């Protein structure tokens, strides 16, 4: 890996094109280096994972709305939309499928200086691959790049510190991944990356206070925008540049300012793209920093006994967990039993209370309005607080995978005065956890989410196509779509009439 220093440059300063971060990303994307077997295997796992969570979300209102929008754009020789037949405009298929993937907060994650869900790259690349008749090996190459670029940007540039939403790293990664898959040249990818970044920067109010369905829509929107950016760049259109480093660019006015310095690692020429192996998926449908606390609550449940005897619970955790999903956020909505599912998903206090009471976490039951409003849950929930512990913050940002941690130490004080303590550094499903996810676990997650939603024969057909991705011929990527049972689709809610 090569560490690249990135900073604002004055307009009058000599700054060769080859030094622009977007150009260096384009060079990585255009590098014809092969994909390691372990990277290709994990790409297949994440395609299966995305299908699993899409099956679980297929009739949720935001997903239905996005799907119906896409279905207003039929295109011969286009792309597929999850769950249904037909051929649609690729940017709209990327949109609909991106919402389905993201709706339940249930797919992969990478956390470092910033946070991300790099599986958000997959819908856009699959949609475009279907449109252009790419083969499975092309898709694998593109996704290896997309994961690499997003994860490397996440390692190097913090966005949330400046209240910029994390999808600002997703637009460039999708553009770069498409550049690899389509075998575009460096100048074209450079322009596409710049356009995608310029058009996908937004504030992170989408993840603050009362959180709405836009939380799921934001990455899908970034993917759609990136598809359109690549299309324009292929037609010869340009982008603002230098997009990160310019005097009026992203760093100067949206991130750390004219004096800020960032270090972004990128593969050297000829170096294989392995970043996907640094990421991890979710066993539970909840914000990633809640994964280990859910497992910790389940582990502590028997020792605690009757939850009504709890006087207080303090979760000692990282800066990010405390301020984003903990009491450090100062969001009263995180204690509101009538709050949206998206808000409850970002309340580690609610999540720990329910996991402690139930000994499980379910993507539907655990968020049901009647579950959130249960009086004994509300009482326990409001006894829980978080505090930042510098050691957990240090481990959160550690570059040593054996030290890096996203967990917490729980201190539970009972009414009797007895104190019960335990801690968990990583979730059970994490590569270093008690039950790491491998191919069998991804397949089991898909089978569990697809039960009653997708016909068993259709499940088998999809799994065969996904696991044989490297051998899918040109024009064969339509096999990655999954048809949902008609009666399930018929149960989808009405969403009102829009413009489209």
Write the layout of secondary structure elements.
Elements: E1 2-7, H1 21-30, H2 37-57, H3 61-70, E2 74-79, H4 90-102, E3 110-111, E4 115-116, H5 121-132, H6 136-156, H7 170-181, H8 186-199, H9 214-234, H10 250-253, E5 261-266, H11 291-304, E6 310-317, H12 319-324, H13 341-345, H14 348-358, H15 369-372, H16 375-381, E7 384-388, H17 390-397, E8 408-414, E9 419-424, H18 439-450, H19 456-467, H20 486-490
Helix pairs in contact: 1-7, 1-8, 2-4, 2-6, 2-18, 3-4, 4-5, 4-9, 5-6, 5-7, 5-9, 6-7, 7-8, 7-9, 8-9, 11-14, 14-16
How would you describe what is shown here?
The chain is α+β, with helices and mostly antiparallel strands and 500 residues long. It folds into two domains: 2-278, 2-methylcitrate dehydratase PrpD (Orthogonal Bundle), CATH 1.10.4100.10; 288-424, 2-methylcitrate dehydratase PrpD (60s Ribosomal Protein L30, Chain: A, 2-Layer Sandwich). Helices cover 44% and strands 10% of the residues. The chain contains 20 helices and nine strands. The chain has helices spanning 21-30, 37-57, 61-70, 90-102, 121-132, 136-156, 170-181, 186-199, 214-234, 250-253, 291-304, 319-324, 341-345, 348-358, 369-372, 375-381, 390-397, 439-450, 456-467, 486-490, and strands at 2-7, 74-79, 110-111, 115-116, 261-266, 310-317, 384-388, 408-414, 419-424. The strands form three sheets. The protein has a four-stranded mixed beta sheet with strand order 7-6-8-9. Strand 3 and strand 4 form a beta hairpin. The longest helix has 21 residues, at 37-57. The protein is globular. The mean pLDDT is 96.
């Amino acid at each position: 890996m090569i560490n690249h220093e990135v900073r604002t440059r004055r307009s009058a300063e000599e700054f060769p094109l080859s030094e622009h971060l977007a150009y260096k990303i384009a060079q990585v994307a255009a590098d014809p280096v092969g994909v390691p077997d372990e990277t290709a295997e994990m790409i297949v796992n994440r395609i299966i994972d995305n299908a699993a969570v899409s099956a679980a979300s297929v009739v949720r209102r935001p997903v239905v709305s996005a799907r119906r929008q896409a279905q207003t754009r039929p295109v011969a020789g286009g792309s597929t939309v999850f769950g249904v037949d037909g051929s649609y405009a690729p940017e709209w298929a990327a949109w609909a499928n991106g919402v389905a993937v993201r709706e339940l907060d249930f797919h992969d994650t990478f956390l470092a200086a910033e946070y991300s869900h790099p599986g958000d790259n997959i819908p856009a690349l699959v949609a475009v691959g279907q449109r252009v008749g790419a083969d499975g090996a092309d898709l694998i190459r593109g996704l290896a790049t997309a994961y690499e670029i997003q994860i490397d940007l996440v390692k190097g540039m913090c966005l949330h510190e400046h209240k910029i939403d994390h999808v600002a790293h997703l637009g460039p990664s999708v553009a770069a991944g498409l550049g690899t898959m389509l075998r575009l040249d460096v100048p074209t990818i450079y322009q596409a990356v710049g356009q995608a970044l310029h058009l996908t920067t937004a504030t992170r109010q989408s993840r603050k206070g009362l959180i709405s369905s836009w939380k799921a829509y934001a990455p899908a929107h970034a993917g759609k925008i990136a598809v359109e950016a690549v299309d324009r760049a292929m037609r010869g259109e340009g982008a603002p540049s230098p997009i990160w480093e310019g005097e009026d660019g992203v760093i100067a006015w949206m991130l750390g300012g004219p004096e800020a310095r960032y270090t972004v690692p990128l593969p050297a020429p000829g170096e294989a793209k392995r970043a996907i192996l640094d990421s991890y998926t979710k066993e539970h449908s909840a914000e990633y920093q809640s994964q280990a606390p859910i497992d910790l609550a389940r582990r502590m449940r028997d020792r605690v006994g009757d939850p009504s005897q709890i006087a207080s619970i303090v979760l000692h955790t990282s800066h990010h967990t405390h301020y984003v999903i903990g009491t450090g956020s100062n969001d009263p909505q995180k204690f509101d039993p009538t709050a949206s599912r998206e808000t409850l998903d970002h309340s580690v206090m609610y999540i720990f209370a329910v996991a402690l009471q139930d000994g499980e976490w379910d993507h539907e039951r655990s968020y049901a309005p009647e579950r959130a409003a249960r009086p004994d849950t509300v009482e326990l929930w409001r006894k829980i607080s978080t505090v930042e512990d510098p050691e957990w913050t240090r481990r959160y940002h550690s570059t040593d995978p054996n030290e890096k941690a996203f967990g917490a130490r729980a201190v539970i004080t009972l009414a009797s005065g007895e104190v019960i303590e335990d801690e968990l550094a990583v979730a059970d499903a994490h590569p270093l956890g008690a039950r790491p996810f491998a191919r069998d676990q991804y397949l089991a997650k898909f089978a569990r989410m697809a039960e009653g939603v997708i016909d068993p024969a259709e499940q088998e057909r999809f799994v065969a196509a996904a696991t044989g991705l490297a051998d899918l011929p040109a024009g064969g990527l339509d096999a990655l779509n999954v048809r949902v049972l008609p009666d399930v689709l018929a149960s989808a809610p009405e969403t009102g009439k829009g413009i489209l």
